[in-house]
Amino acid sequence: MNRNSAWGVLPLAAAAVLGALASSAQAAPDVGVSVLGVEASEGAPDALAAALTDALRQRVSGTKGFRLVAGRDLVEVKLVFSCPDEAPSCMAQAGKSLGAGKLIFGSIKKSVADNYVVTLKLLDTTRGIIDTLVAEQITKAQTTGTALRGPVQKWFATLTGQGGAGTIRVRGDVIGATVALDGTPQPGVIGTEDLIVG
Description:
Layout (H helix, E strand, L loop, with lengths): L2 H24 L4 E11 L4 H16 L4 E3 L5 H7 L7 H11 L3 E9 L5 E9 L4 E10 L10 H12 L7 E3 L7 E4 L2 E6 L5 E3 L1
Parallel strand pairs: 1-2, 1-3
Antiparallel strand pairs: 3-4, 4-5, 6-9, 7-8
Helix pairs in contact: 2-5
């Protein structure tokens, strides 16, 4: 083989390898996630737990790379599979039976004043371990309608490792105006300098 024909083969081989890599990346299946839900305890309303569960399921359905696996709710899984303490090995068996690679579940309980503490876990059913845990306090104002979407989006990003933290710079003409992000009130008010949110 002469030098000129060798140089002609190299670009073709590189193109073939890149094509194979691209097609394997495109063929990667979505991660099956079952949102077992949020269980209300210690004075938290069941309706709030149901709203959080629905918001999490919507977030999974609307996120590229994830596929919502329909399944049972957390209380039912704990009863059927005898997992009263949510032991990871037991919950992993439940997740496998549902055909899910990951499970999201947790609890909400009443905290001080009108606040609530939300705890969410992401469990890997293959390895039988909790990958990530989120525990955060939310205010009563954050528990209604669209205001719930902001915290749920943040928690899902934290659980799945998607979307690093960012900031938004807000500038306005109305000094003293407050800012809400996805319906969630943000600390601070608009002044003569830009307000940093996030």
